[in-house]
Amino acid sequence: MSNNLAFVFSNDYLSYHFHKDHPFNHKRVQLAKELLEMSGALTNQDIIPARMATDEELALFHDYDYIDAVKRAGRGGLNEKFGQEYGLGTEDTPIFKNMHEASSFLVGGTLTAVDEVISGKRDHVLNLGGGLHHGFQRKASGFCIYNDSAVAIKYIRKKYNLRVMYIDTDAHHGDGVQWAFYDDPNVCTFSIHETGRYLFPGTGNVNERGIKEGHGYSFNLPIDAFTQDESFLHVYETAAKEIAAFFKPDVIVTQNGADAHCFDPLTHLCGTMAIYERIPSVAHELAHQYCDGKWIAIGGGGYDMWRVVPRAWAQIWNVMKNGGPARGALPVQWIKKWQEESPVELPTNWHDGIEAIPEIPRKAEITEKNEQLLKSLLKYTKPIP
């Protein structure tokens, strides 16, 4: 339990917006923030402003020619051929006005969180605007223009020389971050995600282990489609604890995609709010066990922006502040404000009711497959000779 924490936010986050029909909508951040405010968990004193990342900071990971291409695209000055080369102007990552500036605020928010934590001002900081884990060194991918996680970890390594454990619980594999540190023994990446057999980006197999000096510091749990709470939480918690014990990090960075829920329209996992009540609690425990509390949490995916993401992301803050998730009814004020705009009936409680849990005929088979996967991963958590 800690009161030494902060919530990073800027209204500029809402300008990261591709178009009205695109599944990635950063109004999610506003919804989560207001849910916390209306429940009395978040006050103005908790909020610190995000800043824009500088070009030099972006270039800790991204190539300068790519940064320039993003700037030109946002001003309408990038032709289609060059845009495709950089992953810009695709169906997933369309060009929008001032996209460089909007993206730089998301990165700057994560860098703000890093400095607050590692300088010792705060134990934990949450930046829900971050978590864009698919961006590559010179290419946009999967709704992600700049990869704030990769930039932030490069920043931690350069400025503070700390060993970083990156935990990614998005339903999509955290490919951009994994490849950024695939040869770095001072960054341990752990991603639990839906198997790539059915889902973008198709990577994240258990045998993706790193290369050169980084071999042995990349961990993946590509769980089966339709995995439910019990199996998800068992393999996640077991693996996270074993990997942390193996690596002994100085700081933990968690990417908190909220798309493993059964309501999510883009994935095939079948979790409920139970997993989003436990995921941040595990990170909280590990941060205090190994890192003197140093924990930077960021957002990520999540495409049921009304029923799932606000509650899932708000629970990260509740765990940071109170040592555990909120329970009971959601604030009536929040429901009344947003119900008219929401195309679905908003939930009334923090926890999901039994009606949210689908019947999965293959549950026993899925659980067994995930258990075998966990055993395959755990053999890699033994000391490297």
TrEMBL record:
Annotated coiled-coil segments of the chain: none
Protein name, UniProt field: Acetoin utilization protein AcuC
Domain of life: Bacteria
InterPro entries: AcuC (IPR003085), HDACs (IPR000286), His_deacetylse_dom (IPR023801), His_deacetylse_dom_sf (IPR037138), Ureohydrolase_dom_sf (IPR023696)
SUPFAM superfamilies xref list: Arginase/deacetylase (SSF52768)
Keyword flag Protein biosynthesis: no
Pathway, per record: Ketone degradation; acetoin degradation
Pfam families per record: Hist_deacetyl
Gene Ontology MF annotations: histone deacetylase activity
Entry keyword set: Acetoin catabolism
Species in which this protein is naturally found: Oceanobacillus polygoni
Family from the record: Belongs to the histone deacetylase family.
Gene3D superfamilies: Histone deacetylase domain
Occurrences of domain Histone deacetylase (ranges): 22-319
Biological classification of the source: Bacteria, Bacillati, Bacillota, Bacilli, Bacillales
